[in-house]
Amino acid sequence: MPGLDGRAANLAMRARPRGETVPVVLTSAAVDPARLPAGVAAVLPKPFDLERLLGLVARLLLEGAGRPD
SS3 for 44? Predict the structure, then answer.
């Protein structure tokens, strides 16, 4: 989202209808995984491995597939 940092983009998305159910993957070199911001499903340290990212996205999609709309 142009003009927004990651935290502001996450808050804006969460404020939208059904936005609270969208899993957010944070990529950062400086985030402590034990202290994830609200609404963050996972963190990948930078630089991240593409295969690891794709595996994580696939897992999150499968977990979400079992949720009712």
Answer: strand
Between 21 and 52, residue with greater pLDDT: 52
Domain ranges of the chain: 6-65
Upper half-sphere CA count for residue 26 (Cβ side, 13 Å): 22
Task: Output the 3-class SS for 11-28.
Answer: HHHHHCCCHHHCCEEEEE
- Give the tokens for residue 31: 């985030």
d(Cα 19, Cα 7) in Å, to the nearest integer? Answer: 14
Nearest to 29 by CA among 56, 47, 41: 47
Q: What is the mean pLDDT of residues 32-47?
A: 79
